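Field: COMPLEX_INPUT
Field: COMPONENT_COUNT = two
Field: RESIDUE_TOTAL = 465
Field: MODE = joint
Values follow.
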Amino acid sequence: MTSRFELTRNITIGQYIPTGSVIHQFEASLKLLSFAILVVGIAICSSYTGNLILLAFSIALFGIARIPIHYGISGIKPALPFMIILSLMQLLFYGQAAQGETTLFQFGFILITTSSVQLVIVSAMRFIEIILVSSVLTLSTSTTEMTHGLEHLLKPLKYIKFPVYEFSLIITIAIRFVPTFAMEMEKLMKAQASRGAEFGTGKWWQIVRKTKDTFPLIIPLFSSAMERAEDLILAMESRCYTPGLKRTSYRQYKIALRDFLLLIITTLFSIFIVFYKFTY
Amino acid sequence: MEKGLSVRRIVIAGVLGAIAILLGVSRLGYIPVPTPAGNATIMHVPAIIGGIIEGPIVGLIIGLIFGVSSFLDATVPLFKDPLVSIFPRLFIGVIAFFVYFGFKRFNEYVAIGAAGFVGSMTNTILVLGMAVIRGYFTLSVALGVAIANGIPEAIVALIVTLAIVTSWKKIGGSIKKKSKISEDI
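Field: COMPLEX_OUTPUT
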């Protein structure tokens, strides 16, 4: 019962495991870029062999980063019921869309073809791969490094007048405020519950009621957030923060040769996975 | 309306982005419904509100934060695809702003409500459209989800948006802006 009021415990944003491995030491911007390229590769690759290689690769990443694999698995676990239901739906209803393939099973409107089986298996594997790879990324990069990396990556956009520094400041503010609002939310829940509000007592089919239950939380949360925003605006403006001016930073991040190597290797790997014609 | 990012816009985008992330990670933004999509959501509401009160750029940025966080946090394969989880979300706040802007001269309340409704429908239609294009759903499944999920979602978005924006703007009263410097720079 009490766990319902403990929001802060479940929030893993900014969770960082400092093992000091090679993956931790890569410069954040190129690491992010390599990650993005790899994810695109995973999203396009639709062969069995390619996905098996990618799966092995993403598990190997945990080993290289010296992060215990259960951090990755815990990300997959809550997803399992959804995955199973979605796979079933795809299996039952997708066959119609891809006719002309080898039919494996047909009963009434249910039509299972080789391509629909492939779609189901590949999309499940894709999903697991992306969860694993993105948990390696977030567990091996601190939020400060991440925002710096983002700022670096977006720098070229300055030439088309994209406000890079302001944008990364927005991201920093957003990440900074998540735990604060989680605490605020906890307080709100307790306050409303002590006034007799009932959270989580509605059954799952009482959708309207469950929706109504969220209103006494969401609306005060927004207005207290806006209030905090006003305080922050006042604080920043009275310290003369001016958007668009050049700023210097306290820590300097340098890009070394091995960061480029990481980028080149990931790109080649993704190109190989996408364009190589696997038999299966 | 002034151009670019003022301090006010930076902060509001950041704070509403934080709420979008929080609603996702704490599962409070999800309302479980028995459809293939699994959940109805109110996580796009911050993007709509941002679009209404601070304009399209802020709406776009909050949409981006929401998209990226839902991508990183996804529990269904559908949303582990950046083309489904990030790209469509960019338009929520932008479209909400234009709807609000268009209706504003008739009636403020109608404008806010319409922006909430249309912004939410934008999310539903674009995400499901992308899901069909990428082959996760067939058109008929997507249509079912759009009706079973999309309409209630849009109504909830309408109510929440209206409640928050009217209390924020204090229509007919003074606006709650604390910093008096904002107008000078």
